[in-house]
Amino acid sequence: MEINLRYGFNKFNKKNLATTTKEKIPAQSRIVRLVEQGHITPVKALQMLKDKDCQLQGQKRQEYGSDNEENIESIIKELDELVGLKKIKNLVKELQAFITIQRYRAREQLQTEPLVLHMIFKGNPGTGKTTVARIIGKLFKELGVLPKGHLIEVERADLVGEYIGHTAQRTRDQVKKALGGILFIDEAYSLARGGEKDFGKEAIDVLVKAMEDHKDEFILILAGYKDEMDWFLLTNPGLRSRFPIHMEFPDYTVKELMDIAALMLKKRQYKLSEDAAAELGRIISSKVLYGHQHGGNARLVRNIIEKAIRRQAVRLVRKNYVSREELLTLCFEDLLEATEDGS
Amino acid sequence: MVAKKILIAGKTNVGKSSLALTLARFLGVYKFHVCLDRGTGEKQWLKYDLAMAKRKLVSSREYYTQGLNTYYLEISKVTRWQLIDSTGLSEDIHTSADLRRGMALTIAALADCDCLLHVLDAEKYSVNTFSAVDDNLAAMGSSKPYIAVANKIDSVDSSAGLKNIQRRIERVIPCSTLTGEGIVSLRQLLLDKLKQNS
User: Fold this and answer.
1) Residues B79, B80, B85, CA angle at the centre, nearest 5°?
2) A320 interface with B at CB cutoff 8 Å
3) Closest-CA distance of chain B to residue A141, Å
4) What domains does chain B contain, in order, with CATH numbers?
5) Residue-range definition of the domain harbouring residue A217
6) ipTM of predicted complex
7) What is the nearest CA distance from B110 to chain A, expressed in angstroms?
């Protein structure tokens, strides 16, 4: 009887022990057993082990992850707030989805497309190229494509040197500064303008080499007028294949320019009186129609508004008493004088 | 004082056992106890010197090490290491039950070691594409102290392989267990890693 009891007790104890250890390391021992029995490959086991580790640190990571997603969301919102640029917005969102899915595929060990993200931006000045580039930098940082995501903005004069060998050094310096972010070359076509003997060609060669050497470390964006960029790519056929992403920035329409004006005024805490708004519309549409050099771009709007703001200041400073309403409002005559200067 | 556990893992025939013994030599340990565990429940305890261990435990044959060979290295009065030599991991499910058991032991050891010493074969990677085993072992580096070693750099066609490995893994110590090249820096790194850990 006593022996039986003891036996029973022992058995109970053993069972108890077994369950506690099983609870403690269930996944791990299960993985080990699966390998032993030949149900899974050692590779799969390593992945499972890793996943388990991730779960243990899960809390922390999850917080980090949601933070990341929030950042991405706010960046996309910033993009959406830009006036117009419908195609560009779609393209950027496409890129975001593409990168995310490639990440998922890599995690499942599926074939992934190489992430070549160098871009060509075509469009007139003031159509939002730099702004979009800056947003892309921030977005890619959050997506984990670029470690820093900063934007280095250069033009021909920053790259091309004065004597033989100088250009390569200067260009390499700029690339170095841009590592981890985006190198944005404005008016890039001017690098090919001087012909065979021009140092600009040397700069292009260095850039192409840098794209090979620092494959995943920076993104190169070449920007410029559409026609000139098309010509640039035609004369350098090797470049075309290295830039899979082309974005065209169309000129803004009159309505879009008016929206931009409204946004700028709101940011600066000004408003237009009714006749002033009508006058602004008239100015903008005439500039767009008559093909002003800044016609159809945001810089034109900014110049008009900034000039009007200065005119308003001059007008108000002479007065003895200025009301809050007057401080806020830009009048018809402010705009009138602004355009007379021909800005 | 608890002995630190260092697991040497990698694919088969990359030089894991050889590295274990070379490391022991460079640590100034010439005699040690070895525990052979084949996962059958019985453990075999042996006392070996370096030459004997080399003769008995190192071979150029694939899957010569079956199960875990733990070297108890007494480096100084206060420092003791368990250097765990393991069965090479295969990409696929191996047909031999004994080897599968060995690999299972490797994976179990992976979970509770203090430092993972991942050995890769620089000679092989001059032609082969990167193996999933090595990719996944390298991924373990994010959750525990991890050192990658590219072995067999004495071989003539290893430089391309070394470059290939360096492309995939950020920090790799090139070394050769045959000539002893690179083992000194490996020893230093190991000492540093384990110091951080404690």
Assistant:
1) 145
2) no
3) 20
4) 4-197 (3.40.50.300)
5) 83-249
6) 0.78
7) 9
